[in-house]
Amino acid sequence: MNNQIYTDPVKLTQSIFGKLLITMVMLLLLIIVIFTTIQIQSEKNILVMKVNENISEMKLNIQREGRSFSNSLGRLTENSIASYDFFALFESIREAVDLEPNLSYAILMNKERKALLHTDRPDLEQEILVKNYDIFASQQERPVFQEHVSDQITYLEYVFPIQISTSTWGHLRLGFSLIALEKKIEYSENEIKKQIRRIVFRSVVVAGIFMILGTFVVFLLSRKISRPISVLTAYSIELANGNYGFKPDKKLIGKDEVGRLTSSFGMMATNIKNANDQLEGYSHNLEKKVKERTKELESVNQELKNFAYIVSHDLKAPLRSIGSLASWLKTDYEDKLDDVGKEQLDLLVGRVNRMHALIGGILQYSRVGKVEEITARVDVTFMLNDVIDILNSPKNIKISLDTDFPTIDFEPTRIQQVFQNIISNAIKYIDKPKGLIHVGCKSHGEYWEFYVSDNGPGIDKKYHDKVFQLFQTLQSKDSYESTGVGLSIVKKIIETNGGRISIDSIVGKGTTFKFLLLKGKNDVKK
After folding, report:
1. Segment 143-182, tens digit of pLDDT
2. Terminal-residue alpha carbon distance, the chain
3. Cα(50)–Cα(48) distance, rounded to whole angstroms?
4. Residue 377, C-beta contacts closer than 8 angstroms, at least 6 positions apart
5. How far apart are the C-alpha atoms of 134 and 145, rounded to whole Å?
6. At residue 250, does pLDDT exceed 60?
7. Structure confidence at residue 313 (pLDDT)
8. What CA–CA distance (Å, rounded) separates 457 from 327?
């Protein structure tokens, strides 16, 4: 067995194995990425939560220490102001700022916000403080912490109201710098970033290992799933190519649903091979019979052609003799014949002419579709003008044409025969003092729709099919010289060329013959 039969002719990404492999690998990658992301985010949240807890704890420690220190200094301030010992008070406050590492500044202001002492900005002493946090501090009735930023430095300020007797004299404001705290926060954030990078690296390594192992497992699984399908596909291709004797390697066929389906294909291939052998036998016999029947039909067709020619020749010769004899009798014995005799001879000549025309019509009808015809470019407008000239209609009948007829590929004589028969019928049967005939054309999808309308007597709907039957006329043959062949020839020419013809008519008002002809690729409408 040729192993190349199982080579997948399509691209890997378009094969079942490729699609399955890519899908499962992408799914595995997605799962690993999701779990890795969840793990990293979870550990990051834990670290951030711990850092935030430490920061909160450090702030609480600063507040506790600051409150204890501020309350002591506040009580000292109240006692010093009550005894008017401002010099000693200012010295004590400045000394406290110098000795306390976290204390950055001290401000003592009265209730009008006038700064009596400002260790950070001595230039503001004896000035009214007007910033928002100054106003906020002046409005406090109880000790409170406020956080604000000054010169890009964050301060945690403790505001202590100075109570003299029962009224608020002013406020002592002690500002504790958070620079140390911010450095600790920055250090903690850097540590978090380092730990996250380590976590990401470790997770990526683990994910990569799992990805390699998972891809290998997926590869084996995908190959195991897709191989029977590939065998079945190859088997189907062999069957489609007509190799019904091909049998796949049983080792490659599993016992699952795909394997059972492959076995079913084998049974089907055997049945198809048997049926194909029978069909080949039938086809051989049928081909032989078709050739025999074709040969017989060709012989019969040739005999019919010879018969039509012989009939035409043998019938037309005596008819011509009868017609000539009747004409001679009328001429030679004109003075001896009465009116009835002359009328009988005229009737005889008319019958002979009709018989002659009938034989010609039958020959034309029999040749339609039997003789190889050569198509040519036909300018329908030019051809219609020739037809009108040939018919030489009476003066009381007016024939009008559209101005945008196409130029088509058709056998010139046949298309002329179609229009000539339809228009001559219209001329023949018009019963109005002023006859009107209009010939037009319009596009109708893949067809040209031609129509010939007249204001004649009309045709009852029950006779619409009858007028196209051979030898059928609606009027007495004695009233109108008609063979009943013309419209049959028209119908046969049109249908032989893939078209169709129909009638629209209102009795007493007129008739429209419509026929469709397939458009040619070179047809052009003016």
Report:
1. 888 888 877 778 888 888 988 877 889 898 888 877 766 7
2. 66
3. 5
4. 407, 408, 409, 522
5. 13
6. no
7. 54
8. 35
Place of tokens 């291709």: 237
Q: Per-residue pLDDT for 211 more than 60?
A: yes
pLDDT tens profile 284-309? 788 778 787 777 776 666 655 655 56
By the 8 A CB rule, do 510 and 458 touch?
yes
Is the CB of residue 511 less than 8 Å from the CB of residue 458? yes
Quote the tokens at residue 396. Answer: 């009381």
Considering only CA atoms, which of 90, 85, 87, 80 is closest in space to residue 117? 90
Residues 228, 252: contact at Cβ < 8 Å?
A: yes
Paired with 144 in beta bridges are 159
Parallel, antiparallel or unpaired: strands 435-444 and 397-401: parallel
Mean pLDDT, rounded, for 327-334: 69
pTM: 0.39
d(CA 86, CA 168): 17
Q: List the domain boundaries for the chain.
A: 373-525
User: What is the structure's pLDDT at 213?
Assistant: 77
Q: Which CATH superfamily includes the segment(s) 373-525?
A: Histidine kinase-like ATPase, C-terminal domain (3.30.565.10)
Give dist(CA 185, CA 192) in Å, integer.
Answer: 10
Residues in the chain: 526
Closest by Cα among 333, 59, 213, 437 to 205: 213
List C-alpha distances in Å: 442 to 31, 127, 382, 403. 67, 104, 17, 11
